[in-house]
Amino acid sequence: MSLTDPAPREIAAQAIDLHKTYGKGAAEVRALDGVSLDLYAGQFTAIMGPSGSGKSTLMHCLAALDKPTSGEVVVGGRKLGRLRDRRLTALRRDKIGFVFQAFNLVPTLTAQENILLPLSLARRKPEKGWFDQVIDTVGLRPRLDHKPSELSGGQQQRVACARALVSRPDIVFADEPTGNLDSTSAAQVLDFLRHSVDDLGQTIVMVSHDPVAASYCDRVIFLADGRIVDELAKPSREQILAHMADLQSRAMGLAPIGEDA
Amino acid sequence: MLRLTLRNLAAHKVRLLMSTLAIVLGVAFLAGVLTFSHGLDRTFSGIINGSTPDAQVRPANSTTATEDAARPGGGSEAMLRPEAIERLRTLPEVARADGVVQGAGLYVLDTEDKLVSSSGAPTLAFNHTGSPNLLGEPMLELDLGSWPKTEKELVLDGATAEKAGYEVGDAVTLIAPQGETRRKATLTGIAAFNGGGTAGAQLLVFSTAGAQELFTEGKDVYAAVSLTAAPGVSQKELVEAANTVVPDGFEAVTGDKVVAESEDAIGDFLDVISVFLIVFAVIAVIVGAFIIVNTFSILIAQRSRQLALLRALGASRRQVTVSVLFEALVMALIAATIGVLAGWGLAHGLAAVFRQAGLEIASDVLDLTPRTIGISYAVGVFVTLAAALLPSRRAAKVPPVAAMREDTQPPARSTVLRTSVGLVLLAVGLVLAAMPRIGIPEISLPGGFEVPTSPALWVGVGAGVSILSVAWISAFLGRPVLAALRTVSGLVFGMTGKLAGQNAMRDPRRTGATASALMIGLALVSLIGVLAASMNASISDVVEEEFKPDLIVQSPTFTPFPTSIGDEMEKVEGVATVSRSQVAQAVIGKVDLQNPKKNEPAFLFGVDEDMPRIYDLDVLEGSDDVKPGQVLITEEAAKEHKWQLGERIDLTFRSGRQLHPQISGIIAKTQVTGDITVRIEDLVEAKVPREDASLSILLTPGADPAVVHERLDKLVADRPVVAVQDKDEFAESIKGQVNQLLYMIYGLLALAIVIAVIGIVNTLGLSVIERTREIGLLRAIGLSRGQLRRMITLESVTIAVLGAVLGLALGVLFGVLLRDALREDLTSLRVPLDQLAVFMAIAVVVGVLAALLPAIRAGREDVLKAIASE
């Protein structure tokens, strides 16, 4: 893949010729079919594509949640392929942050406890200054003692974002973080993610099929049928929509029955 | 609807198995106990029927002859002469008349010269006559070898021969009650009762001459006669004919009557065992019911969306309820079937345990009777359906709209009503249990019913009501305990501990119900523990207070022994006084010839002049210095018989002799002697054969107790019938018996705890399924597999400790109250803190064990699948 930014950047995570297949024989499904990708530190990257394009599988492999059938993933300079479960867990806890589409929080813990969960699981103390900075950026200071059931959906996602950032991970993976939110809440969450890249120097990779969400990003990667088909740098919403439509029609052309995503 | 129910069952086989396991165990225990009691019953009735002749001639006013002989001090003096038997034999109605010679006080020593323990069942020593039983079969079956022919030969039962290590042809060492006490006889064969087995009794079969040498000083006399009817003669005709020639003091009775008397006598004993075991089966079933309620509640909560969909598609509430109940019915039938089969196995296990204890039960009588199967199925189905009823009604209340809701958790139901009702019930239970302290009202209820006055009964009912109430509102009562446990585990184990504590508090009702199963078991265990510890403390107190001699000599089985032992001990250096006591039986008051059943003999103690000097009896009236012709009675006996000091009482002995001693003293109840105490000289006069029940020994001043103890031990070394004990050894020997019973009860209650463990496994397993997504999230953000396992284990331990805290609190409370109600016998209270600590530790272990499977399962769960689920 060609670099869109000529200035050399530090690589936060790397995928090298990833393949992921499910099933065997006639029922074989190729979720990833030779994906190679460098993700740069300090960037907000979006991975887009229609349903079944493999974007979630790619993210799960990059985030050490799933193992590729072949190929190599490198996160923070470390190859994941040979790591045992214990090391992978520690890696997820210390080097990676997560934001999921829903069910992000442990219902029995308060917002603050949820945010500090990765640290307390590692029996580490939060850095006071960093914690305050994250909390203020996320704007949830008055709600820290509330249980998730007492927070709105947008607030819950912001708590989840704060949790992903609090351990200063090398990279944060967000899986459709605004998928379940109304547009106002979604905008708050995306603003927050943008801020954490610009002001806090974080690295974020987000899977989405929402062009509005992707328009917040520095770089958008398009996936179809398990391959990277294109990418855009700092695109506008219109550019993304045009690209999506293009991909859609190409997919329609290849497979007349069509995908309705 | 039906098909859907069956699909549901088939879809969750493992879950179903776990749910049914609780009821399987309950039913298995019940079926096992019923089968076992039935087998016990059949074993005994088989032996009784198989060893009773058509008719028996025996001393008048007695019950079964064999039983008399086995009782301590029950030896009858009246004997039948050979001429009397000859007269019977000439009667045309009589086909056979065989003289019976039998006696007590005979012991078998094994090849290492140790007493072969008899474990409570009697030692039956008698002559072999070959007379048939009332079915016309031989009474004894020879398994091996031949019957004894000479005086120096004998036949044993298989179990005794095996225990002692003897084979046919070996010389068996015997301890005889009289004459040459230690003798040898050659084992010529192995025999059993007709139908097999001896139910633990030791059989020692001799030739007639051999038995007479042992029991009648070699005289040709007989204790009883077995009569066999001539063909066509009924038992009644046989008895009528025999009674015309039976000598004075004897009577002929039908075999049927003897059987009825024997079954009566053994029936009480068997009933005690059966009731004892059934109580534990009922406890197991109740605990199982708790788990069924809980499992169904959880399953329905998890299925609420599916149930709501059914409702939305038009299923009526009734259909939903019926569908859940039908699911329960299928479960119950499967569980009961497995349970009955497992129960059959359990009965064989129980029989093996009893066989170890010496009570032989033939395994071919351990059949599943239609009654046992019927009861087991009925209980299994009823309990399961009753337990599923509430959850099924709750299932019907799931609104159709729930199908569309994101959140499948049913809204928290108000627990105010439940908690209030539970608290009121708990208060009622506590008041009931405290009634003996407050004072039991003496009011008669309409219809002639009277308020029961037994304090123990009040405490028992109160305890039952309270324990069930606490189980009912465990969610409410458990909250502070759970909060405390959460804090502790959070402090010790950090975030994993805190998460575990939070999870346990998430659904307090579920946690409470799961913990309740364990609570019931531990409440009973600790209650029994308090009683047993109090009993041991009371024994120590009594022994401390009443054990005055330096040493005591008695038989571990409380059987009498020859006086020669005491005679020899008197000669031992360092022994100053040997005080004898003997136990005898006599009918108290006027003998009622019309109604022989009323003449139930009572035990009385014979003592010598040293007894009142050695022991410090609490004299209420008169003096404890009982002289020949006088009698010492306890306060209780005075009250029961309305006796006054100075009055003469009537005692009638087996020999027919009577004594009329004068009451010379009234004493408080004591363990030293019985209700009625006379001098040994009087017993001799009443022709009670002289033997000792215990010896109290005082040492000469300055003698070293340890040295004298050793000398006496050496003296009785070849007489394993008796043991020399000092104060501590004496106390320990009694406590040993209490502890034996205690461990047996613990063993039976262990089943309730096993069922409770299954309950925890079940709840945790279902909770893990419910929280799949949450677990996935935790794993994704850095919870290691080990931490996950620890979290689930800590949740399990929290549940178990909650059950233990509630159970131990209730158990100790009611143990204390029950001890108080029984304070006349249990004079001191002791709460066994060490045991309670062990129970608490067991609860923690139970928690860890219960978490094993769910934790492994949760750890194996694929992180991604957990997140992606739904």
UniProtKB/TrEMBL annotation, chain A:
GO cellular component: membrane protein complex; plasma membrane
UniProt keyword annotation of Transport present: yes
Transmembrane segments: none
Protein name (record): Putative ABC transport system ATP-binding protein
GO molecular function: ATP binding; ATP hydrolysis activity; transmembrane transporter activity
Keywords from the UniProt entry: ATP-binding, Nucleotide-binding, Transport
InterPro entries: AAA+_ATPase, ABC_transporter-like_ATP-bd, ABC_transpr_LolD-like, MacB-like_ATP-bd, P-loop_NTPase
ABC transporter domain sequence ranges: 13-250
Keyword Metal-binding annotated: no
Automatic annotation (TrEMBL), chain B:
One cellular component (GO) term of this entry: plasma membrane
Gene Ontology terms, MF aspect: transmembrane transporter activity
Alphabetically ordered keywords of this record: Cell membrane, Membrane, Transmembrane, Transmembrane helix
Positions of the MacB-like periplasmic core domain: 17-243, 511-714
Biased composition (Polar residues): 51-66
Keyword Phosphoprotein: no
Annotated region described as Disordered, given as residue ranges: 51-77
All residue ranges annotated as the ABC3 transporter permease C-terminal domain in the record: 278-400, 748-860
Keyword presence, Transmembrane helix: yes
Source superkingdom: Bacteria
Subcellular localization, as worded in the UniProt entry: Cell membrane
Transmembrane segments: 275-301, 322-346, 373-390, 415-435, 455-477, 515-535, 743-769, 790-816, 836-856
Membrane topology category: Multi-pass membrane protein
Family, similarity comment: Belongs to the ABC-4 integral membrane protein family.
Descriptive protein name: Putative ABC transport system permease protein
Organism: Nocardioides albus
